[in-house]
Design a protein that fits this description.
Residues 1-20 are annotated as: Disordered. GO terms for molecular function: heme binding; iron ion binding; monooxygenase activity; oxidoreductase activity, acting on paired donors, with incorporation or reduction of molecular oxygen. Keywords: Heme, Iron, Metal-binding, Monooxygenase, Oxidoreductase. This protein is an alpha+beta fold. The chain is built from 1 helix and 4 strands, in the order αββββ. The strands form 2 sheets. A two-stranded antiparallel ribbon has the order 1-4. A two-stranded antiparallel ribbon has the order 2-3. It is elongated. The N and C termini lie far apart (54 Å).
Length: 91
């Protein structure tokens, strides 16, 4: 909401971040807030994510699409093809 950083700070304009007219200092834009101004849906999103993961783990059988997929190691190990999986509902 600082007029020294953003032109028309009260106007909804998401494109202002594509080509800013002047440099935006670090932490000038924190979309979900911080401290007492954090997003009110933050805890709901966490519980919802945990619920989805629980159902994926308990109600589906998982198998690898490419069982011979190699693990690539640069800074950290990661699957070279993104580790695609098949999900089959348990009956």
């Amino acid at each position: 909401m600082n007029k020294d950083i953003f032109n028309d700070p009260t106007e909804f304009d998401p494109s202002r971040f594509e080509n800013p007219s002047k440099p935006i200092p670090p932490f000038a834009y924190v979309p979900f807030g911080g401290g007492p101004h954090t997003c009110i849906g933050n805890e709901f999103a966490r519980v919802e994510t945990l619920s989805v993961i629980h159902h994926l783990v308990t109600k589906f059988e998982w198998s690898l699409v490419n069982p011979e997929e190699q693990i690539t190691r640069l800074a950290l190990p990661y699957p070279s093809m993104g580790l695609p999986i098949y999900l089959k509902p348990k009956h």
